[in-house]
Amino acid sequence: MTTESLITKSRNASRIAPSVLTGIGAFAAVGIYVLVSSLELGLWTSLGPSAGLFPFAMGAVLVAMSIIWLLQELRRPSAKAEGIDRGVVISVVVSLMVLASAMDLLGFQLSMFLFLLYHLKIRGSRTWASSLVIALLGSVGAFYAFNYGLNVALPVSALAPLNLIGF
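Above: the chain's sequence. Below: its structure in C-alpha cell form.
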C-alpha cells in the first residue's frame, strides 16, 4: 500500500454521509425548537413543575442524543447511508393523520388500539396474539397513565354507545 492510498482511504472513511448529517441536524433543530418553546410555558411554579418542564426535558434529551450521534459519526462514520423506504414513511404519516382525525370520534383508547394494531400486525408482521395484547395494553395503559397518573384528560368517544362503555 502506498502513502497516497492510505491518505485517500482515511479521507473517505472519515467523511460523514450528507443524509446522515441532515438527519442529525433535523433532530437537533427539533430539539432546540422544543427547548425554546417549552420556556414560554414555564418550567416551574410555586406549586411545582409547570407545563413546560416535560417538553424541556425531552428537547434536552433530543439535543443531547443528536450531539452523541454526531460524535459517533465523527469517530466512525456509517458504512453507507441507509435509504429511505418511502412506503414506511407514507404509511406512518397517513396512519398518524387517521389517528388524529379519528380520536375525537372514537376516543383515545379505541383509536390508539387500532393504530397500534395496524402497525404491529400489518406493518410489523407480528402474530395476532402479541399484536392484540400489546395494542390493548398500550392503548388502555397510556389512557390510564395520562388520565389518572398525570391528570391529563384524553379524548373520549363522541359516539354514545362507545362512551357508555368507557371509550
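Strands lie at 44-45, 48-49.
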